[in-house]
């Protein structure tokens, strides 16, 4: 089996160079490996937690989707979707919420940081904290567990969330798995070789510090203007520079080949002026992202095309999520009532058809039919109509003497019929999904076992 790599990007901002170098570029590279199935998604439900500006959310979804596609994400290869297009995710999130200890969430760093700030301000400790923030790690666990991701590339600040996802997965497996591991335990992948870029002021480039260099937005002009604002020391042209301590060099290195970076470093040490260095940095960054920006601008101008790509991605993702959530619903007991019997029936064990029974009756048209009911009286199948009750009885006799496997014939994805000598003699209860049908068939096999005298 391929390694499933999954990561999400919160849609509350405009991508900057730091996002590109730290997350987007490495993720796209990893998605190109042969043994990897990549799942990249827009965490737009997460965005609602910290952003109450609908226009900002809407714009950010567009920009981030366009950014990933422009940067080379291949939607044929990667499952690329929006969290909010997968209703199974919030459904799973609720199931997980119900097995997550509140105490675990009390310990989440992001929540604790808010509490600490409030305490320092002398206001109520939960001031301004919404339940989305409090339960943030559970929704994130649902994102990851829904697709049974093995590896989750994230920033170091997210490691605790991954630990929590594992905790929650284990708890669910333990409570409901009955020997089956529903969820793979995911691992955080924190790349050491990926650069954290300094921002304009030298602190980590981050939207929250308002010190970012935009990736595509604003065009080359905005890139140039931002680079011009990166702080340097006051050494003039001709004076040797401390390259290792220079933010310009750190950013340059993240874009250049080692030999180019070494040359840039040597020139700085030989006294290249900051103005020239900034120009060189701009040119080098432009070389990589310029062609992407052209694609970006084209994509942004055709949002309907992006929408289509995301819809196709949602379709791919739901082909996995829909049957899986059915299994999980079954596991927690949210089953169709027609199949409520299974757990008990299967516990009856050998010779356990005791109590399963046939019921013969006359239908509205005066024809004769029979049903097979499970131990708990749930219908498993109903026969076709016979004009003669003896005929119906004879068919019932044949069913009793036959092997379940010879009798059951699957029909489509969710149906089944009972056949005797190649003739359909009864129809199974309608099931909502293949998984539900499996559950019914299991009950049926038990009910069809030869009964003890
Ligand atoms: N919490 C992540 C961040 O802020 C975004 C995210 C949401 C995510 N769900 C995820 C990342 C699932 C990885 C996997 O960066």
Written description of the protein model:
- By secondary structure, this protein is α/β, with parallel strands linked by helices.
- The protein folds into 3 domains: 3-192 and 302-327, HUPs (Rossmann fold); 207-297, Tyrosyl-Transfer RNA Synthetase (Orthogonal Bundle), CATH 1.10.240; 336-448, PH-domain like (Roll), CATH 2.30.29.80.
- The chain contains 17 helices and 11 strands.
- The chain has helices spanning 17-31, 44-50, 54-70, 88-97, 102-106, 109-121, 131-146, 159-176, 219-228, 247-255, 258-269, 274-300, 303-332, 342-348, 389-401, 404-407, 434-448; strands at residues 3-10, 36-43, 79-82, 151-153, 187-189, 357-362, 368-373, 379-383, 408-411, 415-420, 423-428.
- The protein has a 6-stranded antiparallel sheet. Strands 1-2-3 form a 3-stranded parallel sheet. A two-stranded parallel ribbon has the order 4-5.
- β6 (357-362) and β7 form a beta hairpin.
- Bound molecules: tryptophan.
- The site of tryptophan (TRP) has 12 residues, from β1 and α7.
How do the strands and helices of this protein lay out in sequence?
Blueprint: E1 3-10, H1 17-31, E2 36-43, H2 44-50, H3 54-70, E3 79-82, H4 88-97, H5 102-106, H6 109-121, H7 131-146, E4 151-153, H8 159-176, E5 187-189, H9 219-228, H10 247-255, H11 258-269, H12 274-300, H13 303-332, H14 342-348, E6 357-362, E7 368-373, E8 379-383, H15 389-401, H16 404-407, E9 408-411, E10 415-420, E11 423-428, H17 434-448
Parallel strand pairs: 1-2, 2-3, 4-5
Antiparallel strand pairs: 6-7, 7-8, 8-11, 9-10, 10-11
The structure holds tryptophan.
